[in-house]
Amino acid sequence: MTREYQQCTRCVMDTTDPNIIFDENGVCNHCKELEQQLQTVNTPKEEREKNFNKLLTGIKTEGEGKEYDCIVGVSGGVDSTYLIYYAKKVGLRPLAIHMDNGWDSELAVSNIEKSLQKLDIDLFTYVLDWEEFKNLQLAFLKASVSDAEIPTDHAISAALYTAAAKHGVHYILLGANLTTEGILPLSWTYGVRDWRYIHSVHKKFGERQLRIYPHYDLLKLFYYTFIRNISVINFLDYLQYSKQQAMRVLINELGWRKYGGKHYESIYTRFFQGYILPKKFVIDKRKAHLSALILSGEMKREEAIKELQSPPYAGYMFEEDMEYVLKKLELTREEFVQLMRLPIRSYIEFPTYKKITEFVRQSGLKNFLSKINLWPGT
Fold it and tell me: Which residues are 7's β-sheet partners?
């Protein structure tokens, strides 16, 4: 039975998330959940400054005598660039890690190089083996799941842990934050840290062994977290972070340039989120991002609705991206059309670590570990 369409009266999330729940006033569960989370970071100024200074002191103390005191992942986007800008501003000594998965836009490369050069920050670029990664991306397209971008996210996470362990650094700072990413339905994407899920998809649909693809399982995560004492911090949540203000700072001080969409520094992300997700899965991730901005006070609901009325793609850009993506993945138009017509599957159809992580969450252990910075950030 098809569910009647409904949109939240407070944000712009709707029934394209099949698990969304509305109260008697039409307000969705995502609003309520994010509001609760925002309360934990939108503390009084004195308390927020106290927590931030405590974090800074810990990072600097742990990093004494080392070349770097923290590891920061940079994509060239607003959040990660502002994160490393602010980290340097408050006296930290970060090592920037960038994951080159073969899909960087020229603008992303320019933004990263220009920003880090002005900030005088060392950069290490982890280049994925293209043939391996291409095969993994194709496996996810063949699996016909809506979270086909998580192989990149998992590899980034693995590279950050590897760099932290190599340099003896105890802190990984992430640009993930509640202001811009506080809403993301599990039905839309799952498994960034779930190697069992990624491996099972590749095992079923992949055609090439993953020999050097960076990854970690739960045992390795335990090693990084409890043996190497590496904490993952959503750094921007310690600030009164404003995306618009951050963008102005980056443009004025670093010469940073806009991409036109969240995570559009990657050509594949732009194509996947701008075409494959809405066309095949009826998922417009802009709804989640814009809803987070509404709840954070960064945007009015009317503005978000107006933005959603425009297509995620400019016509000329779509044609260029389509040609580029198909050529790089070595797919013909006909083969791509067949992939788009495959029956949609969910992550629940594959082996995952979900039961284990759900137990940790429901037992209260997650909250305890989060308080002592031993549970990885979002």
Answer: 14
pLDDT digits (tens, 9 = 90+) for 8-40: 999 999 999 999 999 999 999 999 999 999 998
DSSP labels, 312-337: SS-HHHHHHHHHHHHHHHT--HHHHH
Which residues have C-beta within 8 Å of that of residue 71, sequence separation ≥ 6? Answer: 94, 95, 97, 160, 163, 164, 167, 169, 171, 172, 173
- On the question of pLDDT at 377 being above 60, the answer is no
Q: Enumerate the domain spans of the chain.
A: 55-371
> How do strand 94-100 and strand 70-73 relate by DSSP bridges?
parallel
Instruction: Write the DSSP string, 58-120.
Output: HHHHHTTTSS-SEEEE--SSHHHHHHHHHHHHTT--EEEEEEE-S-B-HHHHHHHHHHHHHHT
Q: Answer whether 177's CB lies under 8 Å from 234's CB.
A: yes
Helix (H) or strand (E) holding 295: helix 286-295
Phi, psi of 280 (to 5 degrees): -95, -40
Looking at residue 305, its pLDDT comes to 97
Q: Residue 165 class from Cβ within 10 Å (0-12 exposed, 13-18 middle, 19+ buried)?
A: middle
Residues with Cβ < 8 Å from 194, sequence gap 6 or more?
A: 352, 353, 354, 357
User: Is pTM, for the whole model, over 0.85?
Assistant: yes
The model's pLDDT over 165-195, given as tens digits with 9 standing for 90+, comes to: 999 999 999 999 998 899 999 999 987 889 9
pLDDT at residue 378 greater than cutoff 50:
no
For residues 87 and 81, the answer to whether their CB atoms sit within 8 Å is: no
C-alpha to C-alpha distance for 267 and 102, rounded to whole angstroms = 9
Class of domain 55-371: alpha beta
**Cross-sheet strand order for the sheet of 70-73:** 123-127, 94-100, 70-73, 171-174, 231-234
| Average pLDDT of the segment spanning 215-219 | 95
- Count helices and strands (H / E) in the chain: 17, 5
| Element of type H or E holding 123 | strand 123-127
